[in-house]
Q: What sequence folds into this?
């Protein structure tokens, strides 16, 4: 099946999906799904800050003989410390957000971290991210997936101890090398801080202007 057909199949809900694939986030994941994606960032132990943006990076696993098109990927955030089975294929899950990354052209996606209201989750350090799509494995279509975790959620947007960079292993020829790459983008917070600083400067200038104007009027009245 060519990538165009796979993309149409993912985008059109009227086209039946194979029995080995389950895209319904309210049901258990299929035990027939293929663990073919190696998710490198965010690495386990990362503290996620609400409203920040995070690089989700992945690559095709060496052990999986499959064709994985760069089209659309489903990204699911879930939290289930009681999951039975193994972490690669938990039998049950509690989902918090699901997002479809459309027309992915490279092996990464910039994901917006949602806000998990404080008090709704007892264990804030047991979150997992799962990405999945459909790929050709041998002669059949399967859901291929990868996951990362556990991840910790900060209950507030101004949380600390965030992992801004991560060391990941990348391939260069026949050798593996460790590369330090950005994980969390602080752009939105930096922009907000810049706007706040500008507002403070403008307010200070206005106060000085009013003070000078007041002194001038006072001098004219006295004289």
A:
């Amino acid at each position: 099946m060519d990538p165009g057909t796979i993309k149409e199949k993912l985008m059109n809900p009227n086209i039946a999906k194979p029995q080995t694939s389950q895209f319904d986030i309210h049901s258990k994941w299929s035990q027939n799904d293929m663990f073919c994606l190696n998710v490198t960032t965010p690495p386990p132990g990362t503290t996620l800050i609400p409203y920040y943006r995070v690089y989700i990076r992945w690559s095709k696993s060496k052990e999986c003989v499959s064709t994985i098109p760069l089209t659309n990927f489903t990204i699911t955030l879930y939290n289930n410390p009681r999951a039975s089975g193994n972490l690669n294929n938990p039998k049950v899950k509690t989902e918090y957000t699901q997002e479809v990354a459309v027309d992915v052209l490279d092996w990464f996606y910039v994901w917006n971290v949602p806000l998990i209201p404080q008090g709704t989750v007892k264990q804030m350090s047991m979150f997992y991210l799962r990405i999945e799509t459909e790929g050709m494995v041998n002669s059949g279509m399967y859901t291929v997936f990868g996951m990362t975790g556990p991840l910790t959620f900060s209950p507030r947007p101004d949380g600390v101890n965030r992992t801004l960079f991560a060391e990941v292993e990348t391939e260069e020829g026949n050798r593996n090398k460790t590369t330090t790459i950005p994980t969390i983008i602080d752009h939105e917070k930096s922009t907000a801080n810049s706007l706040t600083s500008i507002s403070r400067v403008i307010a200070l200038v206005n106060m000085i202007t009013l003070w000078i104007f007041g002194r001038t009027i006072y001098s004219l009245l006295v004289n």
